[in-house]
């Protein structure tokens, strides 16, 4: 593949991060009526009447589109892996970031698909079933945060330890990524809170964790584009080195 075409593809992938923040925010948050989510203390019937039937068409469309636009995060994470890999002799941090990014992308797609089902089936199946699927999706969405925390921690360590000039991104941007990943820690106790800042619809999730998460994803994109436009050593030597090293150990 020609270098110019490769760079154009990589630039497109890098911009998928900011695009994800905008499009997912519009589909999942605005159309999906998730700002804030419905009251976790609702009874099954209240959840159906006051949320899924009240906003049925909008939720169905929004969550269906969110299940599609969530893939942009996966594309962006793969591109970030390539750029991290170029700066590592043994690409363990790059692979940790890749694994976390792929799994995060799956969660971003899987949970909205379940909420779309809730909207479609509201009024035709039992409210208890709707509530069960609704909460299962939220627990998967929020409580699997550690896959994203590992991802951003790997990015943070690489940026802080990397001596290559110019840097992949400013250290403050990597610090913001780490802060976002650590801000998810209270979500481990999500089942214990039906009200207050740490509940599903609480202040912490939406105004600390989710906003910082969106900010770092959007902010890093332009720095990734700048890095792509600079002359780089191909990622393949690092892969060959890793493979030859493993063979020598065996």
User: Cα-atom Rg, whole angstroms?
Assistant: 20 Å
Main sheet specs = none
Q: Number of helical segments?
A: 10
Helicity level: over 70%
- Described by the principal axes of the CA atoms, the overall outline is elongated
Give the low-confidence spans: 242-250
From N to C, what is the helix and strand string? Answer: HHHHHHHHHH
How many strands in all?
Answer: 0
- Ends apart, CA distance between termini: 33 Å
What is the beta-strand fraction? Answer: under 5%
Mean residue pLDDT: 91
- Structural class determined from secondary elements: mainly alpha
Total of domains: 1
Descriptive account of the structure:
The two termini are 33 Å apart. The protein has one domain. Helices cover 74% and strands 0% of the residues. The chain is an all-alpha fold. Helix 1 packs antiparallel against helix 4 (71-85). The protein is built from ten helices and no strands.
Fold blueprint:
Elements: H1 3-31, H2 44-52, H3 56-69, H4 71-85, H5 92-121, H6 127-143, H7 146-161, H8 171-183, H9 203-229, H10 236-249
Helix pairs in contact: 1-3, 1-4, 1-9, 2-6, 3-5, 4-5, 5-6, 5-7, 7-8, 8-9
């Amino acid at each position: 593949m020609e270098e110019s075409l490769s760079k154009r593809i990589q630039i497109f992938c890098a911009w998928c991060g900011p695009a994800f923040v905008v499009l997912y925010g519009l589909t999942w948050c605005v159309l999906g009526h998730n700002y804030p989510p419905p009251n976790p203390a609702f009874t099954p019937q209240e959840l159906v009447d006051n949320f899924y039937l009240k906003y049925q068409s909008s939720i169905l469309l929004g969550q269906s589109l969110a299940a599609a636009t969530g893939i942009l995060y996966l594309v962006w994470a793969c591109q970030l892996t390539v750029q991290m890999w170029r700066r590592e002799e043994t690409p363990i941090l790059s692979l940790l970031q890749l694994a976390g990014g792929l799994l995060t992308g799956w969660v971003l797609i899987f949970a909205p698909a379940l909420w779309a089902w809730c909207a479609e089936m509201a009024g035709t199946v039992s409210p208890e079933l709707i509530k069960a699927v609704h909460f299962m999706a939220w627990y998967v969405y929020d409580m699997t945060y550690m896959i994203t925390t590992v991802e951003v921690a790997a990015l943070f360590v690489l940026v802080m330890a990397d001596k290559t000039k110019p840097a992949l991104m400013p250290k403050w941007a990597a610090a913001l990524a780490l802060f976002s990943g650590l801000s998810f820690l209270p979500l481990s106790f999500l089942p214990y809170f039906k009200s207050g800042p740490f509940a599903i619809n609480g202040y912490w999730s939406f105004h600390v964790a989710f906003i910082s998460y969106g900010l770092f994803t959007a902010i890093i994109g332009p720095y990734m584009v700048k890095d792509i436009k600079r002359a780089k050593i191909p990622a393949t030597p690092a892969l060959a080195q890793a493979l030859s090293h493993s063979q020598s150990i065996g």
